[in-house]
Amino acid sequence: MESFEALEIYQKIIYGNISNGEFFYRKAAVDAEIAKLMAIAYPDGPQADAAVPMSRYEPLLKSERKLRYKLAKLEIERNAAIKAISEEATKRGRFEAEVERLKKALLPLANLYTEEIKPDYVFATSLIGREVIAAHKALSGGR
Amino acid sequence: MILSQEKFKQLEADNAALRQRLARLVEAAESIADYSTPFEGYLDGDDLKELKQAIADVKEVIST
């Protein structure tokens, strides 16, 4: 008898949905099938299985716990990476804006000393003069 | 994850370069501001004031 059929009949017996004649006629076959199914489901016997219910599943559960832990860890790392990237990107935007702002603030005075007031030799060779000229060159060149 | 790490490293490198660039600009800006301070009364508008404010703000940004 097919296992599925055995279960179906068993279900009918339990729910009292089968005639007495059919029940007695097929009981032995059904019992044999049920015993076979029980042996597959509970290889150590139902009592043994109840007594050590987790022993057979423990390795699987352990693996599952390990996997879940790894997944959770990866998710935390992923979120931390996203946060770090977002923070660095924000920082870059801020730095770029500050470079532009400083260039804009610096340019009028750098222009004044290097273009409007023509630097004389003393200025151009002095430390500050060299710095002003270099700054102006950097600003004008957009470096 | 590898892509994220590469992106993060790239951003970090960009920011390190920008930080250096800002530091150089601040140095130049401070030189110009120091040089200009004695002539403040002769300079146009708020150029020097704005420059000094920008320097202070940038220094704060760099330090973060």
Your description of this structure?
- The complex is a heterodimer of chains A (143) and B (64).
- Chain A is mainly α.
- Chain A has helices at residues 3-14, 20-41, 46-51, 58-116, 121-125, 127-141.
- Chain B is mostly helical.
- The longest helix of chain B has 35 residues, at 2-36.
- The mean pLDDT of chain B is 83.
- Classes of the chains: A mainly alpha (143), B mainly alpha (64).
- The A-B interface holds A 74, 77-78, 81-82, 84-85, 88-89, 91-92, 94-96, 98-99, 101-106, 108-110, 112-113, 128, 131-132, 134-135, 138 and B 1, 4-5, 7-8, 11-12, 14-15, 18-19, 21-22, 24-29, 31-36, 43-44, 47-48, 50-51, 53-55, 57-58, 61, 64.
Counting DSSP E segments of at least 2 residues, the number of strands of chain B comes to 0
Query: How many beta-strand segments of chain A?
Result: 0
Q: How far apart, in Å, are the first and last alpha carbons of chain B?
A: 27 Å
Regions of chain A with pLDDT < 50 over 5+ consecutive residues? none
Query: Which geometry of chain A do the CA atoms define?
Result: rod-shaped
How far do the termini of chain A sit from each other? 86 Å
What radius of gyration of chain B results from the CA coordinates? Answer: 17 Å
Mean pLDDT of chain B: 83
Radius of gyration of chain A: 42 Å
Strand content of chain A: under 5%
